[in-house]
Amino acid sequence: MSEPEKIDHKKLILAEGRDAELFLVWAGRHFRPEIDFQVMDFGGIKELTNFLKLLANDESYDNVETIVVARDAETDAEAAIKSVQHSMNEAKIPVPEKPFEYTQESSLKTAFMIFPGPEYTSGRLEDLCLLTVENDPLLECVDDYLECAKAKGERLSRIHKSKLHCFLAGKKDYAGLPIGLASRKKAWDFDHPSLEPFKRIIREM
Question: By the 8 A CB rule, do 92 and 159 touch?
Fold first, then answer.
């Protein structure tokens, strides 16, 4: 189980996995140049409840003003929403009624964000990243390649990852990079409209 690192900021973003953590570090710096926030990897979604409870043991926890949780919708956004709300309730922190909105009790305000965004019933961070480059002509080549791979008998069970890494492989500056490092190198368009809900939450921290 992931354990929280030491709290050193009053505004926290808790991300599901290392890729999401680094994506939100670099997206967050683009949206909030003052960099007055901290991003932590809470591990897998089943670890969120215990992570939140352990976080409260930090000596600086009473100074925390904002907690934002970010996770994938996976195959069912509604189930993901209920899972985050359950974890927040178990940890006895304010529970927003829906994603991408804040709620506040006493001095702590909270929100949660679901990848790839509020309009999607399923999906993941990879889908959001690809949305930000939707006008890149290379995506046509990516689709052709993946169709060819399937025609040759490849079973692409994680098509979102296959498509994203195929796209990065076709870019000389990003080939072989995981999402987080690609984010640092600005592989994704952080000004794309698909990121507006995320930008709003981070700016309002």
Answer: no
Residue 5 per-residue DSSP state: P
Rounded CA-CA distance 59/38 in Å is 16
Give the tens place of pLDDT for each residue, 121-138. Answer: 999 999 999 999 999 999
Q: Supply the pLDDT for residue 77.
A: 98
> Which residue is listed with tokens 């994938």?
72
**How many CB atoms are located within 10 Å of the residue 65 CB?**
13
Q: Is residue 1 over pLDDT 80?
A: no
How many whole angstroms separate alpha carbon 153 and alpha carbon 168?
23
Structurally, what CATH architecture does the domain formed by 11-122+190-203 represent?
3-Layer(aba) Sandwich (3.40)
User: Would you kindly state where each structural domain of the chain is located, as residue ranges?
Assistant: 11-122+190-203, 125-184
